[in-house]
Amino acid sequence: MGKIIIVKKKNRLLLTLFDEKKPCLMETAPFPDEESILGNICLAKVKDIVPGINGAFLSVGGNQTVYLPFEECKEVLIANRELKDGETLKQGDEIVVQITGEALKTKQPSSSAKLTLTGQYCVCSFFGHGLHYSKKLSEVKRKCIDDAIRTASIEGRKKYCFTIRTNAEALNDFSVLFEEMKSFIKIFNLIEETYKHRTCYTCFYRREPEIVSQIKNISLADYEEIVTDDRDTYELLTKSLADRPVRFYQDDMLSLAKLYSIDTYLQEALSKKVWLPCGGYLIIEPTEAMVVIDVNSGKADSKGKKSRDYYLKVNLEAAKETARQLRIRNYSGMIMVDFINMESEEDNQKLLDFLDACLKKDKVRTRLVDMTALGIVEITRKKVKRPLSEWIKPGEV
Questions:
Q1: Which of these ranges, 27-36, 224-233, 300-309, 379-388, has the smallest mean pLDDT?
Q2: 314/286 Cα distance (integer angstroms)
């Protein structure tokens, strides 16, 4: 099992998840007193309808504008009028939305009318009904939790949709899960009862500090403890994550960042070239339209080996590292990977199957599309947050 290391870096918190003695995830988060509006649920006003991009721009107070795709508002809470069947949103409508994405380059923050609350053990959706379970939960645990929830008769549970997360696998006492479900029901009940009577720009829900939600999104099975050398962060985490092991690190002779070579790994995550164990390397080039990754054999030695086996080995190492780098760097959108050409269709299929398995470990929705006629592998990754390189520049490490 790995560790979560949290240190200060460039006026932000840097979370690094170690697995097999190497980082498999690096994320930044603002200090708790500098939080963004991401995750907030508020009453917004429709400012402009833009049919050309199939969406609308909403005002959420002050000079802040967010984008709402129409596909994200098939069901919506409108405060100032009743929405008739077949009717669409119009300018001036006051609707309840949740901020779902940060501003990316020239794009406004994104929002959705699909209201969702994410906790350590479950996710609650305002629209929808029923109980759903993570595919990673064992059948035995799933049945055990299902029986316990139905026996508990949690008031208001059937009004909303609940998805039980993988972290619930570790629970023997389900009371913490029940309390989380009840807290979400209380928040949604309050919104449902009051949204028609609140003034525009009212904030119904402010999410927990981002660093806390980032940790909750990491499976308990992935690490054994959280370590930080920032006193404020330590106190926040011990209060917010009472059931998780958090340790305060203090050593005047050796900082936590140096102990875990954070700057070295960060420099690698911001550089164009990434070396592979076999001696090959990746060249990673983010462009305006897409991220391009080129696989090179480099110093890899094929002496005494069949070239077919040699190229497959390099490509499989490159596939594993590509998936890791996408998570660490938080690149999104279209990703094009130029692997070393292989003549065997069987080897190409082995590569695609292995890459697909590596990509499925990503918490952010990532999809392997296909391999083109030119041998370029196409990947798409959902845009959720800014890339690591937008927060920290190579010269600032």
A1: 300-309
A2: 22
Determine the residue type at 176: V
Cα 266 off chain centre by = 19
HEC secondary structure over the chain: CEEEEEEEECCEEEEEEEECCEEEEEEEECCHHHCCCCCCEEEEEEEEEEHHHCEEEEECCCCCEEEEEHHHCCCCCECCCCCCCCCCCCCCCEEEEEEEECCECCECCEEECCCEEECCCEEEECCCCEEEECCCCCHHHHHHHHHHHHHHCCCCHHHCEEEECHHHHHCCCCHHHHHHHHHHHHHHHHHHHHHHHCCCCCEEECCCCHHHHHHHCCCHHHEEEEEECCHHHHHHHHHHCCCCCEEECCCCCCCHHHHCCHHHHHHHHHCCEEECCCCCEEEEEECCCCEEEEEECCCCCCCCCCHHHHHHHHHHHHHHHHHHHHHHHCCCEEEEEECCCCCCHHHHHHHHHHHHHHHCCCCCCEEEEEECCCCEEEEEECCCCCCHHHHCCHHHC
CA distances from 350 to 43, 296, 346 (A): 50, 19, 6
Chain-centroid distance, C-alpha 37: 16
Residue 4 burial by Cβ neighbours in a 10 Å radius (0-12, 13-18, 19+)? buried
Query: Exposed/middle/buried for 108, CB within 10 Å: 0-12, 13-18, 19+?
Result: middle
Structure confidence at residue 63 as a pLDDT band (50, 70, 90): confident
221 Cα distance to chain centroid: 17
The alpha carbon dihedral of 382, 386, 390, 396 has a sign of negative
CB atoms within 10 A of CB 134: 17
Q: How far apart are CA 57 and CA 67, in angstroms?
A: 5
Residue 134 · residue 163 · CB < 8 Å: yes
> Residue 293: how many CB atoms within 10 A of its CB?
25
| Distance, CA of 19 to CA of 2 (rounded, Å) | 5
Q: How does residue 302 score in pLDDT terms, banded at 50, 70 and 90?
A: low
Is the pLDDT at 308 greater than 90? The verdict is no
Cα–Cα distance, 42 to 66 (Å, whole number): 12
236: Cβ contacts below 8 Å, ≥ 6 apart? 32, 209, 211, 212
